[in-house]
Design goal:
By secondary structure, the protein is an alpha/beta fold. Helices cover 38% and strands 19% of the residues. Strands 1, 2, 3, 4, 5 and 11 form a six-stranded mixed sheet that branches. A five-stranded mixed sheet has the order 8-7-9-6-10. The two termini are 30 Å apart.
Length: 286
């Protein structure tokens, strides 16, 4: 049984549930179990090596590169949108303002720290960040996942993480948010099969978006309404989620470069060196 972990946000559920519903099978007969946890818990679990396959923040990948391969599918990027730094209206954020972030290894936290080095950071489950701002526990918070679509009217966006990303990169590369990683100890033929199954799940989900969305809504596992779900999936579970393209790879490499320059990562890496090698599969069929 292959243990797969993903976040409970709508795009991860959407991209995985074609497997749960039996729409995609493994040619090798591999079976999958799944667990839904918040993204920082998944980042930490992957660092500890708990799951066979896990959704992770791209910002966390350099910390697990020796033990996990980076998958090319099930990816979520921002392109002109993404996490939002919010605060109460009519308030001013000082240089050392207190802020709630969704986890130290998340992409949004890494980019935030580049722009606000003096901010006092506390880490919260992403579902609790809005309330932390409303209660006054923190001055600001970075909203992620579906929270960016609908938050309290007393709050406003101070800054888009996308804008910080563009300022740091000096170009408009896709903002790498979430990806998937697979344990390197899994035999290569099985690893290739797992990635193929996960890719197929995303493809099938997109082809049957209306039906699958309805099934997820009927089971009450989605935190937004039907209209918000459609909006959210258009942002984070779309044709660009099926398989990494070259411009997305450039975005990942730029994130790794920024993190290395800031001393967050111990060495500079390129994502191309950490994918599952498919040459084995090609050789088998020649």
């Amino acid at each position: 049984m292959i243990k797969v972990a993903h976040s409970p946000d709508a795009d991860d559920l959407f991209m995985y549930y074609a497997i749960v519903f039996g729409w995609v099978d493994s040619p090798l007969g591999q079976k999958f179990s799944h667990t839904a946890l918040d993204i920082q818990t998944l980042n930490e679990a992957t660092i500890k090596g708990i799951y066979d396959v896990s959704a992770i923040s791209f910002g966390a990948y350099p910390f697990v590169k020796e033990d996990f391969a980076l998958l090319k599918t099930g990816v979520s990027f921002g392109q002109g949108y993404g996490p939002k730094l919010i605060k109460k209206k009519s308030t001013h954020l000082k240089k050392n303002f207190k802020v709630a972030l969704s986890g130290a290894h998340t992409t949004n936290a890494i980019i935030f720290r580049l722009a606000y080095p003096e901010a006092k950071i506390i880490y919260k489950n992403f579902l609790d960040i809005e309330e932390s701002v409303l209660s006054g526990e923190v001055d600001g918070g970075v909203l992620i996942h579906e929270s960016i679509l609908n938050f309290d009217s007393s709050l406003e966006v101070e800054r888009e993480i996308w804008d910080i990303w563009c300022e740091q990169t000096k170009e408009e590369l896709p903002l790498p948010l979430g990806g998937m990683a697979l344990r390197r100890s899994i035999p290569l033929n099985k690893a290739i099969d797992i990635e193929s199954v996960l890719t197929g799940a995303v493809e099938v989900a997109l082809k049957n978006k209306k039906t699958l969305s309805k099934m997820l809504m009927e089971r009450n596992i989605i935190r937004v309404n039907e209209k918000e779900l459609d909006t959210y999936l258009n942002l984070y579970a779309n044709d660009n989620s099926v398989s990494l393209n070259e411009i997305q790879k450039q975005g990942i490499d730029k994130l790794f470069e920024l993190g290395f320059q800031a001393g967050i990562y111990d060495r500079l890496i390129k994502c191309e060196d950490y994918f599952i090698p498919t040459l084995y599969q090609n050789l088998r069929h020649t």
